[in-house]
Fold:
Amino acid sequence: MRRGNFRDDTVDYAAVGASHAPDLMQYPPERSIPAEESWRIGSGAERFQTAGEALLSWTAQRAAGLTIDDVRPASGAGYAGVSFDAEGNPIAPSKREVEPRYDSEGTPLVGPGMTLRVRGRLAGMRADAELRVISVTEEARRIGFVLGTVGGSVVSGEESFDVDWREDNDEVWFTVRAFDTPNSLLYRTLPPLVKRRRKELFARYLRAISPLYATPV
Structure:
């Protein structure tokens, strides 16, 4: 079965949370194109913490050449984003106090429920969009978040970003999963452009988070 019809009215797609579904690549949301990549980026607690901090300070997006602006906190006190079970199914939104945090430039760190705009181009392809942070994970061995499109993008859908520190071998892995549904006529007519856009995004995210691909300053 494909993902269900749960919908958060702040986003422009129905399958909220499906980027964390174990069977995303086999059964993506209807009419969407799924993608998944996972890379080993080191080992140990320090590597995990450094990668997690980079992730929550928008490093992947900025290093991908995207400009982040108009960052707005969640509407309503204590909104903590949608929660999901182990199968990626949405649970009732959680409620707790969420203290805003900021990077050295004064931009809010990734926080549940916030909205933002990204602008930029990827190999000549437009990457402008309004996005919402669907959920944030900060656990002892996993740090990550989920972004969903609100509007203004050539595709609609979701991305999940996770840094995992594995107990069995001490390795740190960076995983990005996504599904994109073409919005613009060009992308609906030429689906390979969606895959090309996604491949370019994944490559840039990896260069941003992994020291193995970092560009010397």
Summary: The chain has a mean pLDDT of 83.
